[in-house]
Amino acid sequence: MMTVLYISKAPFSDLIIQKIKEQSELELMGCVSYTTTGFDNESRPDVVLLDTEFIPIPDATAAIQ
Predict the structure, then answer these.
(1) CA 9, CA 43: separation in Å to the nearest integer?
(2) What is the pTM assigned to this prediction?
(3) What pLDDT is attached to residue 37?
(4) Fewest C-beta atoms under 10 Å: which of 6, 8, 31, 56?
(5) 37: left (phi over 0), alpha (psi -120 to 50) or beta
(6) Half-sphere exposure of residue 13, counting CA atoms within 13 Å on the CB side?
(7) Is the pLDDT confidence value at 38 over 80?
(8) In the chain, what is the greatest distance between 2 CA atoms, to the nearest angstrom?
(9) Long-range contacts of 58-63 (CB under 8 A, 24+ apart)
(10) Of 10, 12, 28, which is closest to residue 64 (Cα–Cα)?
């Protein structure tokens, strides 16, 4: 199983979260708000999903699938 960490400056997309949870081979580790001071995360996710506000939602969900 691959782990995913979702990081964003903008509000988190419910659709993207739903698509990650629908994939049986993916586990959402959490959603982290990015700030200019960074973030503290000791976990080691396999995938980091970052700045999705610049990706059209259909493209983002297709990539997740």
Answers:
(1) 20
(2) 0.76
(3) 58
(4) 56
(5) alpha
(6) 21
(7) no
(8) 33
(9) 60/13, 60/16, 60/19, 61/15, 61/16, 61/19
(10) 28
